[in-house]
Amino acid sequence: MLKRLFFISAFAAISTTNFSQVLSDSVTMAPGYANQVYYELSSGTKTISNSTNWDLQFSSNLMSGSIRINGGQGVELFEANTSDTSNFATSTIDTSSLTNLYDGYLSWEQDAFTAQATGHPNYGWGIYTGAGNLTGIKVYVIKLTSGVLKKIWIRNFIASGNIIFSIADLDGSNMTTKTLNRSTYSTKRFFYYDVENDSILDSEPAKASWDFVFRKYSKMVAPGTYYNVTGALTNANIGVAQVDNTPTADAKTNYSNYSLDSSINILGYDWKSFNMSTFSWDITDSLSYIIKNYNEDVWQVIFTGTTGSSQGKMYFTKEKIATVSLEENTPVLNVGVYPNPTSSVLNINFELVNSSFPAMINLFDMNGRVVKMISNDFQNSGFNQLKTDISELQSGVYFLQIKSGSNSITKRVVKQ
């Protein structure tokens, strides 16, 4: 449950604007970008972890089926030419025809394992079986950071916490079945797994203690063309506006004119480019980023340089340019929203405590615009169940708000 109306009115509730000192900073990812670095704007805290010693990235969210791969360090995922999981331990995978699957960067939920999801109840690797549980239906081939090929079957996703998967050689030998309890890592956004060493890596700072992570990752740079790139990916629900071809001083002054986006790759990698004439990195002129973080402060970030892979160092400046004050309300409505993510129908369960204050139910985009008015005068007290079809909306992050009298509650909704 979101206690603040985060992004519902992107800049409407700003109480003070206080241009402060411009601070210069940098992160060092080590030669060859061997590390990933988590960075928090407010404190300047940097959390460094090895980026070469994990294959899979699991979400700790008990309602998230996200499983990402370490594409920047050579991990690849393929859909095998069979969906027969019954003989996983005995059959041999034919690698002559494999479909390569990739992580996406609209959100952290857009991952390789769910790349072929067709919508509820099909989540790509698994089928929804009720009560928040998924059962695996596909066999995949995974190339590990070492280059070794294995086959993998995500067997079960249990809403209470456990995720169960099996990994074996391509002929089914050396099969191991692993159970990981995601609730163990509830204070973190993600935890990581090294297949060959059968080790779990709890290497992140707390989930709200970083704004972006500098990482090497695999990205589609042209239709059907993927390259490894290095840049910054933002934490979930961080709002970013990329301001192009604008003097950075003007961008700072007019920051409230820019629309925020929660896509995790707005910062990305393309603020720099390699100059083949000088064999050095060029930094894009008149480019800055407006960022609203978890503290609801607004920052301007400007990238100023990079050493490239020789040292893996990236330079930037940051300046806090506004403080946002948002009123918090004590919710009186118990709300459940499912499935989430969804590609079409959204089910809304809620309790309206007092029908004397009719409920207004609206869906907002990241910039505070109402994209769907579900109800403007809902008066049934007690437990209610509603459905709304959002298939016409573009993929992305939205916010469902139910407001009754002076009380309101907001839920984040992901449209696939």
What does this structure look like?
With about 425 residues, this protein is an all-beta fold. It folds into three domains: about 15-45 and about 205-325, no CATH class; about 55-200, no CATH class; about 335-415, Macroglobulin (MG2) domain (Immunoglobulin-like, Sandwich). It is built from one helix and 31 strands. It has one helix spanning about 250-255; strands at about 15, 25-30, 35-40, 45-50, 55-60, 65-70, 75-80, 100, 125-130, 135, 140-145, 150-155, 160-170, 175-180, 190-195, 200, 210-220, 225-235, 240-245, 270-275, 280-285, 290, 295-310, 315-325, 335-340, 345-350, 360-365, 370-380, 380-390, 395-405, 405-415. Strands 7, 8, 9, 10, 11, 12, 13 and 14 form an eight-stranded antiparallel beta sheet that branches. Strands 1, 2, 19, 22, 23 and 24 form a six-stranded antiparallel beta sheet that branches. A hairpin with a 2-residue loop joins strand 30 and strand 31 (about 405-415). The radius of gyration is 22 Å and the shape is globular. The two termini are about 20 Å apart. Mean pLDDT is about 85; it is low at about 1-10, about 10-15 and about 325-330.
